[in-house]
Design brief:
alpha/beta, eight-stranded parallel beta sheet, 13 helices, globular
Length: 319
């Protein structure tokens, strides 16, 4: 890490030394111009992607999907089928890339791990009393340790939104630090539930708080509330990871989740990544889509580009 980046990282460590310094730092971040943010997100969403670039973008998007099932009715059989689909999304075309990961509850990690064995597909698990996060820290850490012990490569945690909205930033920071430690070698995605944070300023503060606490990814949402990933809130988080790397030399990933269902939507988000954070984030190590139905549309659009025919929903398996 360059000397100036090292100095910046050390300075940012100092801002977490007490509740008052952390509060001062987070509230000292520049305010978000909501009109400007939404206008830029809308403008980037109109970019035209031509055939060759579109084919590349679709394959890239497939490789960035965290194929997800987070339902009370999940069974080992359903998870095994999802894992098989993640490894080989289109059995008729083995040039189709695998997805980045499958994302399941902790008790389904072992089944998912077996289903993707021998492939590049990771197993991610939600934890920390997902999706509400209403549990004691000891329960949350037990949730994480169970998932990691079962073989999870990645943990998706939810922050305590109540504590955050009450301004108890140090409590949120300390919980993320504790979860990060419990993760061991597993990468940590920190979910803000942006639809509950009310303001763009809060989303910016949450982004920096998560990164200061050691998040490997910052993630918009659980997919379980009315407002999930949007181009504007994702753009704001992309600006945050870009600025954080500039100041510290540390790169953090971004994961929009919930409501991204079509290839057109996914490509708009990839344009946001390229134009805001840059090409370094155009890789599934640094950018993911949290989705359950997006993959099907990507596969149908890929088939259309390859054959000139739109196969329709019967072409792909139903998740």
């Amino acid at each position: 890490m360059p000397t100036n980046a090292s100095a910046a990282a050390h300075a940012l460590t100092d801002v977490t030394s007490s509740d008052s310094t952390l509060r001062r730092f987070l509230h000292g971040l520049p305010g978000v111009d909501a009109v400007g943010l939404e206008a830029r997100a809308a403008s980037l969403g109109t970019r035209s992607i031509k055939t060759t670039a579109k084919a590349y973008a679709i394959d890239l998007a497939i490789s960035m999907v965290d194929l997800t099932t987070l339902e009370g009715a999940d069974t080992p059989g359903k998870v095994r089928a999802l894992g098989a689909k993640a490894v080989l999304p289109d059995p008729t075309d083995r040039t189709t890339p695998s997805t980045a990961a499958v994302c399941v509850y902790p008790d389904m990690v072992a089944a998912a791990k077996a289903a993707v064995a021998g492939s590049t597909v990771k197993v991610a698990s939600v934890a920390t009393a997902f999706p509400a996060g209403r549990a004691s820290l000891s329960v949350k850490l037990a949730d994480v340790r169970e998932a990691v012990a079962a073989g999870a490569d990645e943990i998706d945690m939810v922050i305590d939104r109540g504590a955050f909205l009450a301004g108890n930033y140090m409590k949120v920071y300390d919980e993320i630090v504790a979860v990060k430690e419990a993760c061991g070698a597993a990468r940590l995605k920190v979910i803000f539930e942006t639809g509950e944070l009310s303001t763009y300023d809060n989303i910016r503060r949450a982004s920096w708080l998560g990164m200061l606490a050691g998040a490997d990814f910052i993630k918009t949402s659980t997919g379980k509330v009315a407002v999930n990933a949007t181009p504007a809130n994702t753009l704001l988080m992309l600006e945050a990871v870009r600025d954080f790397r500039t100041q510290t030399g540390i790169q953090v990933g971004v994961k929009p989740a919930g409501g991204i269902r079509t290839s057109k939507d996914a490509i708009k988000f990839l344009v946001l990544v390229n134009e805001t954070a840059g090409e370094d984030w155009l890789d599934n190590h640094w950018f993911r889509f949290g989705a359950s139905s997006l993959l099907n549309d990507l596969l149908m659009q890929r088939q259309k580009l390859a054959t000139g025919r739109y196969s329709g929903p019967d072409y792909v398996t139903v998740d």
